[in-house]
Design brief:
With about 210 residues, the chain is an alpha+beta fold. Helix content is about 25%, strand content about 25%. The chain starts with a helix and ends with a helix. About 35% of the residues are buried.
Length: about 210
């Protein structure tokens, strides 16, 4: 009996601690690692990030979502975020450009949401202009013209209810909404925040303070 009590005295706290950690991970936040260059320069390959599950999603928020069923090539490309559970390596990290009801267009080197030019000071002028083209081809686009090449939401002129239009910060290499369409809300895992010791002040502001 004494032996059992001794064992329980250290086993129970471990079990309780693991249970609490699991609840926090599933309900509040988890930790992940960036895989690839699509969010450079603000998030770099192998950088660890926090993903807050209950944060409000706004224009400018950086989110992690499960791209399976959204990007037809998600399984082939692999994920751009690692160490998240249950999504088989198809988690992507991108920035929300437009929310439900918004229009989006790329005109003369700038992104317009609801006919207003948006602030993109979080990326270089080159990525804002040349990198935001569709398929690396110069020219303007809007949702309707992009959607001709999507499998879903063809003919869309606005972001549908409970969906988001997302783009990577490294526009010239990012595989994002320009190519496959909107991200449904129920596919979003959470909103990204950076660790203060893993990056500099400007990068933290570009990720943490844009939503």
């Amino acid at each position: 009996m004494k032996t059992i009590k001794v064992i329980l005295s250290w086993v129970l706290p471990v079990i309780i601690g693991l249970a609490v950690a699991l609840i926090i991970r599933q309900c509040f936040f988890t930790v992940a690692r960036v895989d690839g260059p699509s969010m450079e320069p603000n998030l770099i390959n192998n950088e660890r990030i926090m993903v807050w599950r209950r944060s409000e999603i706004k224009r400018g928020s950086v989110i992690v979502f499960n791209a399976a069923g959204i990007d037809p090539q998600a399984a082939e490309n692999g994920g751009f975020v690692k160490n998240l559970l249950g999504t088989n390596g198809t988690d992507y990290v991108k920035r929300v450009i437009a929310v439900p009801g918004d229009t989006v267009a790329f005109k003369n080197g700038s992104i317009y949401v609801n006919d207003h030019k948006i602030d993109q000071s979080y990326i270089s002028s080159s990525e804002q202009k040349n990198g935001s083209d569709y398929n690396m081809q110069p020219g303007n686009w809007d949702l309707k013209s992009l959607s001709r090449n999507w499998k879903k939401n063809q003919g869309a002129v606005k972001v549908p209810k409970n969906q988001y239009f997302v783009m990577g910060d490294h526009r010239s290499v990012s595989n994002d909404s320009r190519y496959w369409g909107f991200v449904p809300k129920d596919k979003v895992i959470g909103v990204v925040k950076t660790f203060p010791w893993d990056t500099n002040k400007q990068k933290r502001e570009n990720i943490n303070d844009r939503d």
